[in-house]
Amino acid sequence: MTLLASIGLLLIRIVLGITFAAHGAQKLFGWFGGHGIEGTGGFFTSIGIKPGKTMALLAGLSELIGGLLFAIGLLTPLAALLIILTMIVAIMKVHGPNGYWATEGGYEYNVLIAIIALGIALTGAGTYSVDALIF
């Protein structure tokens, strides 16, 4: 793998992973303008995801852990799977009925995130990843 390709994968993994982990922190801790377990759980219950608080905890952990693993390139296929599954649920339960475009509350962002995660899982995390060091 070339130096530039390795740096490119590193940049993609870090930005996507940290952003996704931050979304998990919003759900779990209320950080970065989030609503924490209580608020997220209430929202989940209101859209039919029950039990709301338990599912908020699982979603938050999936986002936080998946995002951090993805950022450092550790167990990258598992990290990508956590990200992709979270995005599928978001599309099915929240954004799907709104159409494609994010400006209309649609699933554009969710598809973008899922496809980037899938692409990295299929190509590998790159030279500058923990996976490359241990596998």
Automatic annotation (TrEMBL):
UniProt xrefs under InterPro entries: DoxX, DoxX-like_oxidoreductase
Listed Pfam families: DoxX
Chief place of localization: membrane
Segments passing through the bilayer: 61-91, 111-134
Keyword entries, A-Z: Cell membrane, Membrane, Transmembrane, Transmembrane helix
Subcellular localization(s) per the UniProt record: Cell membrane
Membrane topology of this protein: Multi-pass membrane protein
Residue ranges that the Swiss-Prot or TrEMBL entry lists as coiled coil: none
Family to which the UniProt record says this protein belongs: Belongs to the DoxX family.
Protein name listed in UniProt: DoxX family protein
Organism: Thalassobacillus hwangdonensis
